[in-house]
Amino acid sequence: MRAHVAIIGSGPAGLLLGQLLTNAGIDNIVLDRVGKDYILGRVRAGVLEEGSVRLLDQAGSSARLHAQGLQHDGFSLAFDGRNHRINLWELTGKKVTVYGQTEVTRDLMEQREISGAKSIYEADNVNVHDFGSTSPHVTYEQAGRTERIDCDFIAGCDGFHGVSRRSVPERAISTYERAYPFGWLGVLAEVPPVASELIYANHPRGFALCSMRSMTRSRYYVQCPLDDKVEAWSDDRFWDELRLRLPAEDAQAVTTGPSFEKSIAPLRSFVAEPMRFGRLFLAGDAAHIVPPTGAKGLNLAVSDVHYLFEGLRDYYTDGSVAGLDAYSGRALQRVWKAVRFSWSMTMMMHRFPDTGAFGQKIQEAELDYLVHSRAASTALAENYVGLAF
Ligand code: FAS
Ligand code: PHB
C-alpha cells in the first residue's frame, strides 16, 4: 500500500487530520490498534473552544455539533459555599461549546466512511520505520500477515501510550512531566445537569466538577486518591460526596440517578519536545497531556492538527517545507501556554495532601481575588475560551 500520509491513531487528532487532508485531495490512511466501538466507548472531553469548532467546520464535520452542541458563555467557580460566575462572553467576546469528544469522534468517523478514505482498525503491532529518510514506512499485522504502507510522512496521533513517540531515539527527544497525587472519578448519568453551565468546585474535601453532555445527560467528577478503585464507589456514595463538595443551593438541586459509566483517570502534565522527527510528526496526546481541569486536552489536539495540516497542504500544493519546518515550534508555543493554564487551574482547585489548612486558605484567597478582579477574571477567561491558533 502507498499513501502520501500515514496517520497512526483514529482518535480526534488522527481523524480530523485525515479529514482535512482528504478534503484537500491529499491521500492518507488512518490506522488504529483497536476497533471503532472501543474508541467510541471511551468517555473523555466535553468542552470545545471556538477555534476547535471552526476547524471542525473547515473539515465539514460540524453539522451535528451545531445542532446538538450547547453554547456556554460562562461557567462558575464554587468555593467557600458560594458560586461565582465567570462571564466568558462579557470578558472575551467568546463562548465555548459543550459537545462530547465521543460525538466529535463519531462525526469524524462517519464522514471518513462517506469520503471513502482508507482506515485500518484492529491493526496489531504497528511500527514506524525510516522516518529519518525521505521514504518512511509503517508496518502492521492483521489476519496473521505483516502489511506495509509506504508514505511521504507519518502523523503520530496515537495518544500518550502510542508507538510513535516511543520510536524516537531517547537522545533526540526531551520530556517534561508533572504527575498529580490524585485522580478524577467521573460518572455519566441520564439525569438533567444541576445547572445550565459548568461548575468547578474547590472544597476542603476535594475538587468536584459538574458538567454535562446534554440537558438530559450529566457528566460529574470528584477528585479521588490515586489508588482509589471504581468498585469502592457506589452511586449513592458518589452522589453524597458530590453534594458535600457543592454549595448548598446546588447540592439540593442535584438530580441523582443510576450511572451508566464510571471511571477513574489519573492526572498528569506532560510535554515532549520537539514534536517533529524528520518525516514523523507527533500531534495531540502523543506529544502532550494536560490535566482536564482546564478543558484543554482535546482542544490542543485540534490546534496541533491545524498547524500540521497547513504544513502538509503547503508541501503538496507548492512544495514549500516552511510550514512543516515551523510545525513543532508553532505547536509547542500554544501547547506550553495551555499546559501552564491547566496546571494553574489544577493547583488552584484541588486538595493537595501536603499543603493542609494553609494551602486551602491560600487557594480560597486566590479564588477570592480572581472573582473580584476584572483583570484576573479576564486572564482566566481568555485562557479558558482558548488562545488564538
Ligand atoms: P487519543 O488518545 O484520543 O487517540 C489515540 C488513538 O491512537 C487511540 O484510538 C488509540 O487506540 C490509538 N493508538 C494508540 N497506540 C496505538 C498503536 N500503537 N497503534 C495504533 N493505534 C494506536 N480532555 C479534555 O479536554 N477534557 C477531559 O475531560 C478529558 N478527559 C480525559 C480522560 C481520560 C481518561 C483521558 C485518557 C484523556 C482525557 N482528556 C480530556 C484528554 C483527551 O480528550 C485527549 O486530549 C484526546 O483524546 C486527544 O486526542 P488524540 O490525540 O487523538 O489521542
Ligand atoms: C467534561 O464534560 O468531561 C469536562 C468538561 C470540562 C473539563 C473537564 C471535563 O474541564
Describe the structure.
- There is one protein chain.
- The mean pLDDT is 97.
- The protein has helices at 12-23, 36-40, 50-59, 63-68, 88-92, 101-115, 235-244, 248-253, 297-318, 322-349, 356-372, 374-384; strands spanning 2-8, 28-31, 47-48, 70-72, 74-79, 82-87, 96-98, 118-120, 124-129, 137-142, 145-156, 174-189, 199-201, 208-212, 218-224, 259-273, 276-277, 280-282, 288-289.
- Helix 1 runs parallel beside helix 6, helix 1 packs parallel to helix 9 and helix 9 (297-318) runs antiparallel to helix 10.
- The chain has a domain at 2-52 and 100-177 and 269-347: FAD/NAD(P)-binding domain (3-Layer(bba) Sandwich), CATH 3.50.50.
- Helix content is 38%, strand content 29%.
- It contains 12 helices and 19 strands.
- The structure holds arabino-flavin-adenine dinucleotide and P-hydroxybenzoic acid.
- The site of arabino-flavin-adenine dinucleotide has 33 residues, from helix 1 and helix 9.
- The site of arabino-flavin-adenine dinucleotide (FAS) has 33 residues, from helix 1 and helix 9.
Primary descriptors:
389 residues, binds P-hydroxybenzoic acid, alpha+beta, single chain, binds arabino-flavin-adenine dinucleotide, FAD/NAD(P)-binding domain
